[in-house]
């Protein structure tokens, strides 16, 4: 393990976020947006790289200005972009326009028709690359459509064969899926084969195809399969981790001067994964995730706002109980 080239390789979408510059108003009245790299798995790789992990990425991007913006930015923050595949068939970068109605009411308007990321082909997933990683981070959205679905399933299977840990970030985006039943089938397929699953309570409900699931039922179900560690997030109410040997850990959300809500999940995942990979215990890893999210929700972007280790530890110290 120790001599692997990458701490993690993420697979899925690398896109563009266009975040409202004018706060506290509907998008109809928002005239200016700032551009950032986005897409949940890209955000996680960027966040983890900023924390000092060696990160790589597998994804398809267009051969155009947006694709080059994404590649340049991710390269600059230290993510290896050698396994970006260029789409040459005119497909586009996914766009996420964000609306900040108030610090609590935010929404995302996604433009994801004909997006390059969902056309990653299984033949473009390189086994030798995945073998070089300690961990494969899979985002649920990559399972929404073929051929990206098969590409992700291939990546998971390579990881399993080569003792690369699979971390499944549920990352449910309704827009890309046909219906709840289909989502549940593919989520369950990958969750059951993963080592670690991270998601919100609502995302686990999608996985289980239930309206109001309970953490106890989720834990019983997934621990009868491969996962050893589950993280279930409950927004501002905090988050829980469960281990297969029966332990439960909980942490609060840190106080934050909230500007917007998006970016919380990705920054949480990046810092949680970072802490675990540094050998921190699970309780501490939850706190890293939670503190990282509290920092990002106070800032304008998701990717650019990803904190440093020092910023996370400072917040944890300031708000220690
Ligand atoms: N308003 C908030 N203030 C501080 N921390 C927050 C806030 N909202 C979310 N968080 C933190 O981010 C984590 C993930 O948030 P959540 O909303 O559950 O995820 P997602 O962004 O994936 O929907 C939470 O467990 C919490 O620690
Ligand atoms: O994942 C996307 O395509 C959009 C993201 O880039 C955006 O920054 C966002 O919504 C992140 O939110 P999170 O899942 O709450 O971290």
From TrEMBL:
Keywords attached to this entry: ATP-binding, Kinase, Nucleotide-binding, Transferase
Residues in Carbohydrate kinase PfkB domain copies: 8-308
Swiss-Prot/TrEMBL GO biological process terms: inositol catabolic process
Molecular function via GO: 5-dehydro-2-deoxygluconokinase activity; ATP binding
PROSITE patterns: PFKB_KINASES_2
InterPro entries linked: Carboh/pur_kinase_PfkB_CS, DKG_kinase_firmi, Myo_inos_IolC, Myo_inos_IolC-like_sf, PfkB_Carbo_kinase, PfkB_dom, Ribokinase-like
Keyword set includes Nucleotide-binding: yes
Keyword set includes Kinase: yes
EC number: 2.7.1.92
Position of the signal peptide: none
Family statement drawn from the similarity comment of this UniProt entry: Belongs to the carbohydrate kinase PfkB family.
PANTHER family recorded: 5-DEHYDRO-2-DEOXYGLUCONOKINASE, HEXOKINASE FAMILY MEMBER
Function: Catalyzes the phosphorylation of 5-dehydro-2-deoxy-D-gluconate (2-deoxy-5-keto-D-gluconate or DKG) to 6-phospho-5-dehydro-2-deoxy-D-gluconate (DKGP).
Annotated protein name in UniProt: 5-dehydro-2-deoxygluconokinase
Gene transcribed to yield this protein: iolC
């Amino acid at each position: 393990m120790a001599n692997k080239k990458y701490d993690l390789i993420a697979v899925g979408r690398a896109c563009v976020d266009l975040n409202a510059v004018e706060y506290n108003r509907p998008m109809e009245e928002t005239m200016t947006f700032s551009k950032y790299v986005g897409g949940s798995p890209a955000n996680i790789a960027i966040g983890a790289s900023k924390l000092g992990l060696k990160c790589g990425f597998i994804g398809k991007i267009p051969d155009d200005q947006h694709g080059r913006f994404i590649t340049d930015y991710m390269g600059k923050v230290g993510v290896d972009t050698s396994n970006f595949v260029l789409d040459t068939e005119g497909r586009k970068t996914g766009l996420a326009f964000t609306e900040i109605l108030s610090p609590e009411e935010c929404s995302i308007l996604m433009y994801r028709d004909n997006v390059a990321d969902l056309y990653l082909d299984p033949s473009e997933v390189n086994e030798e690359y995945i073998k070089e990683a300690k961990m494969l981070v899979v985002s649920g959205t990559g399972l929404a459509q073929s051929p990206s679905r098969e590409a992700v399933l291939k990546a998971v299977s390579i990881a399993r064969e080569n003792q690369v840990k699979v971390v499944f970030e549920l990352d449910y985006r309704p827009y890309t899926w046909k219906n709840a039943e289909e989502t549940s089938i593919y989520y369950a397929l990958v969750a059951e084969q993963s080592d670690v699953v991270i998601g919100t309570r609502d995302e686990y409900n999608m996985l289980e195809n239930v309206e109001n699931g309970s953490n106890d039922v989720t834990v019983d179900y997934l621990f009868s399969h491969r996962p050893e560690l589950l993280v279930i997030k409950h927004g501002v109410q905090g988050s829980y981790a469960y281990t297969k040997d029966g332990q439960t850990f909980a942490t609060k959300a840190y106080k934050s001067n909230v500007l917007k809500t998006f970016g919380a999940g990705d920054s949480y995942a990046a810092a949680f994964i970072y802490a675990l990979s540094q050998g921190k215990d699970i309780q501490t890893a939850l706190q890293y995730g939670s503190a990282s999210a509290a920092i990002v929700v106070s800032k304008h972007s998701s990717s650019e706002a990803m904190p440093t280790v020092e910023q996370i530890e400072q917040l944890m110290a300031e708000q220690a109980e």
